[in-house]
Design goal:
16% of the residues lie in helices and 37% in strands. It is α+β, with helices and mostly antiparallel strands. The protein folds into three domains: 51 residues, no CATH class; 183 residues, Thrombin, subunit H (Beta Barrel), CATH 2.40.10.120; 84 residues, Pdz3 Domain. A six-stranded antiparallel barrel has the order 3-4-5-8-7-6. Strands 9-10-11-14-13-12 form a six-stranded antiparallel barrel. A four-stranded antiparallel β-sheet has the order 19-18-20-21. It is globular and about 70 Å long.
């Protein structure tokens, strides 16, 4: 019987920016020389220094956010007092109590909040505050080391570590429509919401938003909003105080693109019917729930777009005048 290959990961962290994965083979291939106790100790100390340095740099920028009896986390993203947290942490409030690591407190003003992505932006009136930058890179790859910083269960400025376990997760969170979560095994608990997920460069790669509890044992799956989406939402909140998105007023059946249509909405007014299958919007093919919602969200309210649908196997072209998603305050739809 052929012997299985065993891959044992050993992290070599010479600097914060350099991680090397060494694979030790047991399939008869060339074997690297054993490192010995001294080498193992050097590796462990390098990893420990990396974690300590990132924690030291990031922790002062992580804040406690309290509103209406709720308490979560947040992170300063500029030295002029801009703070990102979760929408469910600000919870519809216009102001929040913000506390820094050094014990100083501020009244934070909510600039804007986006329930569809669970992102909220606050401002405190102070200059020269510690802050952490949002990553401008692509989402971190699976296996990347990350630190979760926040205030879980009342234990302020706690730091836990893990890896990116998956990308592009849809966790099915209540009221969150646009889900493209990073999944991590870094420990995330109640109170971590709104705190940052940090890479070993000391950059924000995500904003922690949820933990899925596993029924067997004390385990969980942590989820974070990726930095690219945080940047997009923050930019619009700064500019307008809200996020502008298009909407049709459709609901999916069986997780596909076959739709039900909400009365009084742009889709119904355009003649889209229950049972129609949307195959393209403005010439852009759609085949999944995420593609459908993301494509509609990018449309400008008030514009008219062509929608290709399949109805009883026949293709039809309809024109939809795009609605404003904020109208969902009056009409419950997707």
């Amino acid at each position: 019987m052929q012997r299985a290959r065993l891959a044992v990961p050993i992290l070599l962290a010479g600097t914060l920016a350099t991680n090397v994965l060494l694979l030790l083979r047991t399939d008869g291939g060339p074997q690297p020389a054993p490192m010995g106790l001294s080498g193992d100790k050097d590796v462990a100390q390098s990893v420990s220094r990396a974690f300590r340095e990132v924690s030291r740099r990031v922790t002062p920028a992580v804040v406690s956010v309290s509103t209406r009896g709720l308490r979560g986390s947040g992170v300063l993203i500029s030295d002029e007092g801009l703070i990102v947290t979760n929408h469910h942490v600000t919870n519809g409030s216009r102001r929040a109590r913000v506390e820094l690591l050094d014990g100083s407190t501020f009244v934070g003003t909510v600039i804007g909040s986006d329930p569809d992505t669970d992102i909220s932006l606050l401002h405190v009136d102070s200059k020269g505050l510690p802050f952490v930058s949002l990553s401008t890179d692509a989402p971190p790859e699976i296996g990347t080391w990350v630190l979760a910083v926040g205030n879980p269960l009342g234990y302020d400025h706690s730091v836990t570590f893990g890896i990116i376990s998956a990308q592009g997760r849809e966790a099915g969170l209540r009221d969150v429509v646009y889900e493209d979560f990073l999944q991590t095994d870094a420990a995330i608990n109640a109170g971590n919401s709104g705190g940052p997920l940090i890479d070993l460069e000391g950059r924000i790669v995500g904003i922690n938003t949820a933990k899925e509890v596993v029924s067997e044992g004390n385990q969980g799956l942590g989820f974070a909003i990726p930095a690219y989406l945080v940047r997009e939402v923050v930019s619009e909140l700064l500019e307008k105080g809200y996020v502008e998105r298009g909407y049709f007023g459709i609901q999916l059946e069986n997780d596909g693109v076959t739709v039900d249509v909400v009365s009084g909405t742009p889709a119904r007014n355009a003649g889209i019917r229950k049972g129609d299958v949307l195959v393209a919007i403005a010439g852009e093919p759609v085949s999944t729930r995420k593609e459908l919602f993301d494509t509609i969200a990018r449309l400008r309210p008030g514009t008219r777009v062509a929608v290709d649908v399949l109805r009883r196997g026949a293709k039809e072209l309809l024109l939809v005048e795009v609605g404003d998603r904020r109208d969902l305050n009056r009409v419950a739809s997707d």
